[in-house]
Automatic annotation (TrEMBL):
<feature type="domain" description="HTH marR-type">
    <location>
        <begin position="13"/>
        <end position="151"/>
    </location>
</feature>
<protein>
    <submittedName>
        <fullName>Transcriptional regulator, MarR family</fullName>
    </submittedName>
</protein>
<dbReference type="GO" id="GO:0003677">
    <property type="term" value="F:DNA binding"/>
</dbReference>
<dbReference type="InterPro" id="IPR036388">
    <property type="entry name" value="WH-like_DNA-bd_sf"/>
</dbReference>
<dbReference type="InterPro" id="IPR000835">
    <property type="entry name" value="HTH_MarR-typ"/>
</dbReference>
<keyword id="KW-0238">DNA-binding</keyword>
<keyword id="KW-0805">Transcription regulation</keyword>
<dbReference type="Pfam" id="PF01047">
    <property type="entry name" value="MarR"/>
</dbReference>
<dbReference type="GO" id="GO:0003700">
    <property type="term" value="F:DNA-binding transcription factor activity"/>
</dbReference>
<dbReference type="GO" id="GO:0006950">
    <property type="term" value="P:response to stress"/>
</dbReference>
<keyword id="KW-0804">Transcription</keyword>
<dbReference type="InterPro" id="IPR036390">
    <property type="entry name" value="WH_DNA-bd_sf"/>
</dbReference>
<dbReference type="InterPro" id="IPR039422">
    <property type="entry name" value="MarR/SlyA-like"/>
</dbReference>
Length: 152
């Protein structure tokens, strides 16, 4: 990957970050399209929030933001949009009346059975012809790169 640099410049097509971004954008566009085909207007970022709530419902917005790598303002807008769509609701915390937790609505819970197969099909297509060992190395490498950047 260090071959992205020449003596006096950069070869963009050899840059890892360039390809990570291209893959992210292509996957994002495809996911958005596939969800829309199912009649669901949902961004991939909102999808990540739903996945976190399917893992553990009734979470604080700060927790959702941290677990999806979104700042406070962005997460607030995302939860607002999910609430308007009828997929989540904010309820007071039983432990702290000043705090509100984000809960899935019945519709939000039901979407799991609709959207997880769509995501599985997309990932299956995306990873076609790639050896599982290569995928494990790729994930581990990206996690290491992320850790390097977080530690800067």
């Amino acid at each position: 990957m260090r071959d992205q640099f020449t003596s006096d410049g950069i070869i963009l097509d050899n840059a890892l970050a360039f390809w990570v971004h291209r893959v992210y954008q292509a996957q994002r566009n495809e996911m958005y399209r596939a969800f829309r085909e199912k009649g669901v207007e949902l961004t991939p970022e909102q999808w990540a929030v739903l996945v976190r709530l399917w893992e553990s419902d009734g979470r604080a917005q700060n927790d959702l933001g941290a677990s999806t790598f979104r700042d406070k303002a962005t997460m607030s807008r995302m939860v607002d949009a999910l609430e308007r769509a009828g997929l989540v609701e904010r309820r007071p915390s039983e432990d702290d009346a000043r705090s509100r937790l984000v809960w899935l609505t019945r519709r939000g819970r039901e979407l799991r059975s609709v959207l997880v197969p769509v995501a599985r099909k997309l990932v299956t297509h995306m990873l076609e012809g790639i050896d599982e060992k290569d995928l494990v190395v790729t994930r581990r490498t990206l996690q290491h790169i992320f850790a390097n950047l977080e530690g800067s």
